[in-house]
Design goal:
Blueprint (H helix, E strand, L loop, with lengths): L1 H14 L3 H27 L1 H77 L2 H7 L10 H8 L32
Length: 182
């Protein structure tokens, strides 16, 4: 503590070496002395007036402070009601949107699996399988396989006079994927 006081005294002495600083410090000290002397003389001459002025100033300051506190409370309440409720509403909406997206995702998976199942069922049909293989085994026709795949035998001799209308194809029962040949 001694060092701080000694440092302050040395700093103040060095500052006062400048004539402009010395004159400003002197003027301020004189003004402070005059002001305090005026206050003391006013209190000594009219103590009740000074007391009333001070009480009025304190009451006015207290009233302004109470008003400021009330305004701050109103602002806080408005923020709670408006802003924070909107934030909570937005949070709730985003949660609902996320749930809707998740539900749609599950439903989309279900639709996809149904489409896959429908495609698989359609491809398991012996007529479709035999039609898809018609380009590769068109020339080696087998009457039993034709009857199995289409339900009737088809031979070129059945269509005499129409030219070559043979649309027969062969799919062996082992190559067909259905429950009829198991």
């Amino acid at each position: 503590m001694k060092g701080v006081l000694i440092g302050a005294a040395i700093g103040g002495a060095l500052t006062l070496l400048d004539s402009n600083t010395r004159s400003k410090v002197k003027d301020k000290a004189v003004n402070a002395k005059d002001t305090s002397m005026n206050v003391f003389s006013e209190v000594r001459n009219n103590p009740s007036d000074v007391k009333e002025q001070m009480m009025g100033s304190f009451k006015e300051a207290s009233s302004i402070l109470k008003e400021a506190i009330s305004d701050a409370q109103n602002l806080y309440q408005r923020l709670n009601d408006d802003v924070f409720s909107k934030v909570n509403e937005a949070k709730s909406n985003s949660s609902e949107a996320m749930q809707t997206v998740m539900d749609a995702k599950d439903e989309l998976k279900e639709v996809g699996s149904k489409v896959k199942e429908a495609g698989s069922t359609a491809m398991d049909n012996p007529v479709v399988n035999s039609a898809s293989e018609s380009g590769t085994s068109n020339s080696s026709s087998n009457g039993a396989a034709d009857a199995y795949a289409t339900g009737m035998e088809s031979k070129p001799s059945d269509t005499t006079g129409l030219g070559n209308t043979s649309n027969t194809f062969t799919v062996s029962p082992e190559n067909q994927k259905n429950d009829n040949n198991r």
